[in-house]
LRR and NB-ARC domain disease resistance protein
Amino acid sequence: MAATLVGGAFLSASVQTIMDRLTSPEFRNFINNKKLNLSLLKHLETTLLTLHAVLDDAEKKQINNLPVKQWLDELKDAIYDAEDLLNQISYDCLRSKVENSNTQAENITGQVWNFLSSPFQNLYGEINSQMKSMIERLQLFAQQKDILGLQTVSGRVFLRTPSSSLVDQSFMVGRKSDKEKLTNMLLSDVSTVNDNINVVSIFGMGGVGKTALAQLLYNDKDVQERFDVKAWVCLSEEFDVLRVTRTLLESITSNVQESDNLDFLRVKLKQNLKGKRFLFVLDDMWNDSYNDWHHLVTPFIDGESGSRVIITTQPLSDDDCWSLLSKHAFGSEELCGRKYPSLEAIGRKIAKKCCGLPIAAKTLGGLLRSKVDAKEWSAILNNDIWNFPNDNVLPALLLSYQYLPSHLKTCFAYCSIFPKDYPLDRKQMVLLWMAEGFLEHSQGEKAMEEVGDDYFVELLSRSLIQQSHDDFGRQKFLMHDLVNDLATIVSGKSCCRREHGGNISENVRHFSYNQEEYDIFKKFEIFYDFKCLRSFLPIGLWWRQCYLSKQVVDDVIPTLRRLRVLSLSGYRNIAMLPDSIGSLVQLRYLDLSNTRIESLPDTTCNLHNLQTLILSYCYHLIELPVHIGKLINLRHLDINWTNIKEMPMEILALENLQILTTFVAGKQGEGLSVKELDKFPNLWGKLCIQKLHNVIDVAEAYEANLKSKEHIEELVLLWGEPTEDSQTSKAVLDALQPPINLKKLSIDFYGGTSLPCWLGDFSFSNMVTLFISNCTYCITIPPIGQLPSLKDLTIRGMTLETIGAEFYAMAGGGSSSSFQPFPSLEILEFQNMPNWKEWLPFIGNKFPFPHLKSLMLIQCPKLSGYLPNHLFP
């Protein structure tokens, strides 16, 4: 039964969206002005509230009640159809609002509206009958709920523990001795085999913590120093020797391997391993994978003696499961025993049901975190789901899902469109959830993005999403394979992730697919029948060049009128979009990044619902649409790494803009002045201000009011070409003082003779990264050593001759006895400093750079004499 569960989670989100529409004053006024029957809206609202009250109960009972499952399945389509109808009306309301606010603007050509007007010309004559039929259809479901015995479920209150910090995902119980033993095996010079290959096997069913233990070994400092090359490959259910061999070769050479010739790849791998001690981790190898083992390991035998292959322990003990569960629920086992002693006995019984699986203990701990009543713990212990007769999903995981609030169920289920082992992008997930209408409106002043991030953090705290790090120490987020299976099951037919062909339901709403080098028309021909599709999302590698059939872009995609999410990212053959893109009026999220787009058609401005427009790495893009101001709901405009020449005037109408990655400062009388940045008070994240050489009026730089934009975390100030007016450049940079919360700052091609004094001010206590490049005329450096959190400092292309006291911040040649310059700096780079001759020492009681890990001096030919000797022990 589990494999056919109806994705009830999406129903709650759709009902909430409809309710938001019905209660919107603008929407109701629009309906009233069109002489439509307002009483129908009231009937619809009442019916939806009745159905919404029993959705939780229906989702639980469908597990072993086929009539309830069928009822949910049919209700889902009815709710979706109702939402789509109201969305059409809502768009017409938006269009009317835009037209009224632009009465003096030039109308878009009649051709633009031809394909838009037809759905609405007859809408008003039919809307009453359509709504009446829709209400009758839903009322039938409301009558059937009583026959099915569905009960109203009162809203649950979800309490959080006082601490808001996330559970440390690296915490492992019962593994210390295992790690020590295995580490000794990896570091030992003793070989138990004659072919230079020692295999360390960590056996156990999915979820026992094999991957986590292997990660600890893989990232151990002593282990890293022991091996010349390392590589990690996730195998999952299918063991493809070609893919694994190619992945290993790419990992150790850092070069993409396009060949599909296994023999060729094996020879190259063998050559690259010759005489080297390697460590490979083959994660998640299934039993039937061993059939191809000998094909894989042949190139390994030329490796240096001491090479190791980790293939993947015994389940956790019940005590260890309880320790892990209690840590995720309370922060520690001791805290539970001290503060909630009555819960420990129940908790240990629950832990026993985890069958030694860490993923079960973690998710149950996340579930129990919001509960401190013994009755609630007993209810979980005695839940019928523990007797669930299906191997497709762990009862503990299904239980954790069922106790999620409806808005989290929806967001969790949507994650199923991403493949197993796929790193989830936190910001992208929030934007996708927002586009699909999954985010509840905040009662306070929180922006939708903040609400979405709260959802993400909550899924993290419940271990339904887990935090990890890549080989470079960068943060990433993953779903455990078993959790991904659960998300796939509970999403039902609403989500489809096409990886290896297979049938697709015509009623699928959210679709993703593996992006291939050549995606031909035949692959998407069936989409002509997918009239309900809301998400079209290719999953690929950012560095891979892919090509999509022009017929798909021009003919297929424009027929998907209900699309909310459309990504064409990475298709390098796309240089233009058809005018018919403007017919996708429900679009909220459009990603055209890494394509060859040169400009967007004017019809793009008809997408009044659009919230996110991503154009990053579109190097051929030189302009934005003139009427971009018609995108009145646009919140995120990513034009990073484009060649846009100037900002269009109408961009000032985008009052909701939260992200504007790039602002091009115009000349006087051309484009937008830098002072217009003051019109965007809500900007956050990254901001790059280009062509600052165009700013000749210092007052305009002050009027930009950068200091007040306290949510900007990364700022790039780019002049773009040399200027002889160094005094103006200096005054402009002084005026562009950023907010003190700034974390990253880059200054490039600045023409002043000195950098501003605010740059080294103690108040910039959050600054972590500072990049100063091509400031040719600069002859001094501000007191950067005072920045307490600075970890990464790069200085390139300066012509100064001496770095001395001002660098460390010694006032008047003296220093406080407790002052230590650069207290947090880890990376220091000087490059292309042709005139630099002298680096004076710090005169003080404490050495600077106490945490420095990397010092790079590149192309500094005249530097000689004294260097800070404590940096060269």
Remarks:
- Residues 406 and 857 are 56 Å apart (CA to CA).
